[in-house]
Amino acid sequence: MATEFKLPALAENVEQVSVTKIFVSEGDEIEKDQPVIEIETDKAAAEVPSEVSGTVTEIRAKEGSTLRVGDVVLVVKDGAEGKKKVEAPAKKEPEKKAEKAEEKKSEKPKAEEKKSAKKAPAAKEKAEEPAEEEPEEKAAEAEAETAEEETFEEAPAPARRAAGGSVPAAPSVRRLAREIGVEISEVPGSGPGGRISMEDVKSYSRRVNTDVRGISGGVVSTRSQLPDFSRWGEVERQAMNSVRRRTAENMAASWAQVPHVTQFDKADVTQLEELRRRFGKRVEAEGGKLTATAILVKVLASALKKFPQFNSSIDLANNEIIYKQFYNIGVAVDTDRGLLVPVIHNADQKNIVEIAIELSAMAERARQRKSKLEEMQGGTFTISNLGGIGGTGFTPIVNPPEVAILGVSRSAVEPVFVDGAFQPRTLLPLALSYDHRVIDGADGARFLRWVVEALEQPFLLFLEG
Fold it and tell me: CA nearest 457: which of 314, 292, 270, 321?
């Protein structure tokens, strides 16, 4: 009995992945839970285990190809799981198909009699509508979408938009538009009656983020403006991996749509560095590393409680600000594929030793392409620490739907005037970027000063944290 192993749903909002490695070949014997392929999403790389066992007879996935959830990865023979799923329903399948065919034949004349006289074009739209449905939509969304369809047939999409009416798009499409910061009413729909699909939203987002508007108001694509570089010498073209491609899209969208403000300050971490050296070996014995980033994760978890607007997201579609009651700190990690951001979940409930151990493990998994998808999601605030590389400062870009990010540069010993004399002190440069739609400049200054004071006087965490 042949059984198809299909790509399972790996995490929320992950609809397609890139195949980077295939671990098996045709003729191999595989067991359930054995890794068969390595995939890469926009946020992480992970191994996908088989849900069936048996002999591999066909491999349909290819390295470098893209798979969607539900696509067939490989086919096995004598799969234990396959027998349960395929044998019993196989006998009844022809009967069900025959019954459905008969029902369609009997219902078709009735439907045509009702619609042909008055709404022939609308009937055509109805018949074509299932092609636009997304296979992963939930039943509740499908019902809401059906209710919307009846309204959308009343007038063309441009006329309704001009009049401030509804926009023809499924709930899942609206959600995607909100998550990537696209105004759904501005997206041109390619479906019947101007209906907007997932691909329409993605295409529109890519276009607005790569186009340049000239003085005359015309739109010129930046991609068409590149000269033929080979005229001056040899060139090499390399395709973007999924992490780099998604990073480029997200950062361009953030820079274009989020009004950024960046504020700078320096923290005197002379005493903190002494404490870090004193207790560093104790943390290493537990399996972690007591870094400035680990300490900052704990400091920021407390700061977000005191300044909740920094732990929020803006929902322009509903004119609301969402204040989160959980504190998940993302930490940017430099890898050979680009920047990945694993997340320390519930950082407020963990001590610095626990954070240091978890951070070391997650950073190592990210570099080895073994990150778990769930640990790359749910962040409410991000830290980007370039201190290990160097530099005196930089302006980090907010990672939507978050509203703020803290950039950390390399600490340096500088002369500081203390008690009537200059003293050598270790100063840590910090840069706070935030979304000015949610956070005002005064709030940004207060937040950054609180973080600085917490680093300079750790007792503040016990006093106010």
Answer: 270
Within 13 Å and on the Cβ side, how many CA atoms surround 372?
8
Q: What is the CATH number that goes with domain 139-212?
A: 4.10.320.10
For the domain made up of 261-464, give the CATH fold. Answer: Chloramphenicol Acetyltransferase (3.30.559)
**What is the set of active-site residues?**
436
Contact assessment for residue 415 and residue 395, using Cβ atoms and an 8 Å cutoff: no
Q: Is the peptide bond before 401 cis (omega within 30 degrees of 0)?
A: yes
Report the alpha-carbon distance of residue 223 to residue 79 in Å, rounded: 48
Cβ–Cβ under 8 Å, residues 75 and 4? yes
398 DSSP 8-state letter = P
pLDDT in tens, 98-157: 445 555 544 544 444 444 444 444 434 444 444 444 444 445 444 444 444 433 333 344
Q: Can you tell me which residue has the tokens 């005229």?
A: 231
Q: What CATH number belongs to 2-82? A: 2.40.50.100
**Taking the complete model, does pTM exceed 0.85, yes or no?**
no
**From residue 181, how far is each of 93, 220, 244, 251 by CA, in Å?**
44, 22, 19, 12
Cα–Cα distance, 387 to 409 (Å, whole number): 4
Residues in the chain: 465
Residue ranges per structural domain of the chain: 2-82, 139-212, 261-464
Distance CA 28, CA 196 (A): 44
Q: How far apart are CA 439 and CA 163, in angstroms?
A: 33
Query: Phi/psi of residue 308, each to 5°?
Result: -65, -20
- Name residue 413's beta-bridge partners: 426
Residue 432 near residue 447 (C-beta atoms within 8 A): yes
For residue 339, give both structure tokens: 């920047």
Longest dimension (CA), the chain: 96
Sorted by sequence, the CB contacts under 8 Å of residue 454 that are 6+ apart come out as: 299, 302, 303, 460, 461, 465
Question: Running DSSP on this structure, what letter comes out for residue 321?
Answer: E
**CB 206, CB 181: distance < 8 Å:** no
CA angle centred on 433, ends 432 and 437, rounded to 5°: 130
Q: What is the pLDDT of residues 303-351, one digit of tens each?
A: 999 999 999 999 988 999 999 999 999 999 988 888 889 999 999 999 9
DSSP per position, 187-213: SPP-SGGG-B-HHHHHHHHHHHHHEEE
Strand partners, 335: 338
Number of H helices, E strands in the chain: 12, 21
| CA atoms 239, 205, 385, 340: torsion sign | negative
Strand 329-331 to strand 381-385: parallel, antiparallel, or no bridges (unpaired)?
Answer: parallel
Axis-axis angle for helices 171-180, 139-152 (nearest 10)? 100
